[in-house]
Amino acid sequence: QVQLVESGGGLVQAGGSLRLSCAASGSIFVINSMGWYRQAPGKQRELVATVTSGSSTNYADSVKGRFTISRDNAKNTVYLQMNSLKPEDTGVYYCAADLVIGTFLRNTRRDYWGQGTQVTVSS
Question: Of all residues in the chain, what percent are helix, strand and coil, respectively (each to 5)?
Answer without folding.
Answer: 5, 60, 30
